[in-house]
Give the backbone structure.
Amino acid sequence: MPDATHATSTGRPLAYLASVPTDVVKGIGPKGARQLAGAGVNSVADLLLHAPRRYLDRSQVFDLSSVPLGEEVTVGGTVLEFEARQITRKKRMSDAVLSDGTNVVKVRWFGRILKLEPGDELLLSGKVERFRGTLSMTNPDVEQVGGTSLVTGRVVPIHPGVGNLKPGKMREAIDNALRRARPVHEALPEEILRRQHLVDRDSAIAGLHFPDDRAEAEAARRRLVFDELFRLEVSLAMRKYQQVEAAKGVAHRVDGVLVEQFIAALPYRLTGAQRRSIEEIRRDLASPHPMHRLLQGEVGSGKTVVAVAALLTAVQGGFQGAVMAPTEVLAQQHYLGIRDLFETAGIAPDEEDPAAPPGMDSLFVQGEPVEDRPMLRMALLTSNDAEVNYLPPGTARRADVVAAIGDGSVDLVVGTHALIQQGLSFDRLGVAVVDEQHRFGVYQRVQLREKADLYDPDLLIMTATPIPRTLAMTLYGDLEVSILDEMPPGRTPVATHLVGTAEVGRAWELVRRDVSVGRQAFVVCPLVEDSDKLEATSATAEYQRLQGILPELRLGLIHGQLRPAEKDDVMHRFRSGEIDVLVATTVIEVGIDVPNATVMVIEDADRFGLSQLHQLRGRVGRGEHAATCVLVADPTTPESEERLAAMVATTDGFRLAEEDLRIRGQGTVFGVRQAGMADLKLADIVRDAEMLVAARREAFDLVAGDPVLADHPLLAEEVRALLGADVDWLFR
């Protein structure tokens, strides 16, 4: 290991150890380093945080007269007899008889030639058995008394092996690394250690691997768990400061008539949760600091109306609004839904002559509100589609739509990643809404925000995936949160049933029954094409099979491999009632709103996660008719049984999200990597929820007084070194 030119008076910083490769550690070498890198252990810092998965307590030395049989123990004694034999070229063994003055034990090591002699004092760790009235041990760990042992007479760590580096070799390598890395610098302020009752870092890293007892190991783990959570929360606090406090935002008009006109024209009353969320957003928008808020809500809880109220607040003050969705299907759904809301509210322009110059009916002229003629112009822009609500469908040219966004004659645009493409600019982007945020990275959020040059637009992030509180604190700790925890009146919970594949005929009878009275159904399969590796029903094969089972019904097929125009055509025919049963993959997981659909059949349901099952179930029951979800599965694991039982038991998405987190663990709820989650090696946000709350409080308090960590340079280096590229932009 390089000598510590980076060492401080109190030790080597963890950030420095994160720059030292593992191949310099004795016992690892280049081949071992490559294997460790494959397991995410790239540096000496990673190696020192490679925690034991369990411990063997060999700290107590038992007398042979009272030693428990069949348990891992340590005994000591003097060698009375010893013999080592090479039986064949490959077969060898060593035998010894030891006494501790209270009894004797016969010991045999297979495959080893030991160098012992009568009179040697030894410690043996392993299991003691009784054979023909005599105590015996087979292949115990052995150390000479007086030496320093890693495996006898102490609490022995059992580290996860990596490749050819078995637990024993990992133990020796970590011991070697510790000898050259210590002392490890303390990066946390003394007052935080005192308030949180934490041991110092050097003691924690040593105690994690080679504790004197289990209490020391637990204190060490607790300290290092706090470190992981604290680093993550510090990065979130810095992000929040840069996005909100240090950014130049817009203090929007919140007293205009447009939002009130929109809400008054709705054919239903807002729920209390919607009114509360709109008020929270209104206060954010009135502030000169840019809004960064997460809007959580069940499928059907009315998130779109809340988002539109935010967008119209920007529009009534002369700014533009944007909605970015992860898929073309969802973007088109939002465009159609918002367009219909504007028509209901009387603020949508009539389709004008295609030859008319753009901007004639815009709500604004040169950025100034036109109070007596609130006609709001909106556009849809994806990689394959461009539409506007003031021209007949199919007549808008893409280049004209892009130009209208750039010159401000479009007030609101809905789109996909196309909104952050090069060559597209906004005139005055004031509020940006990002839907299903877990499908976008932080960088894409930043790209959308950068479409406004002179200020930071307000950002509202929507998700219909309920997020457990602990997970939200790690994934979205830089955001304020609004929760729609009420459903609009008249929404009936979807009845959910689990049937085995042998009983699937019950599902098809239900489909026939509902279609016979004018309703529609979804059938969801996990794969697009048949796979020899997965015993899953493909959508294409199931579509063909169901044509024979349901010949009297009109079937359609949609999946992600269809061309956009084909998908649009299928969805249009399903919405218009030309298709009775839509066979689909998870392309319909979000954003599909067909109130007439009342049956959802999910095949191979045990192959889906809870969050995905809940999203799929949310595609039905969106109208006035009772709806049913049928889960078709023969679960083969306890985990899949738990998931399906939870789906049948409740329609509460937040309860399901907590259950999903408990069953599947952190980092898997969304099925994609989230910044920070992969960096939690010791911490578990379910088990360590209280520690997460404490780390968040300390981190945000520290950053409030030192926003760029100028007074804590070693902590800044550590956050950057251990969290990597995810946080680089915080230090620019």
About this structure: The chain is about 35% helix and 20% strand. Residues 353-373, 668-678 have pLDDT under 50 and may be disordered.
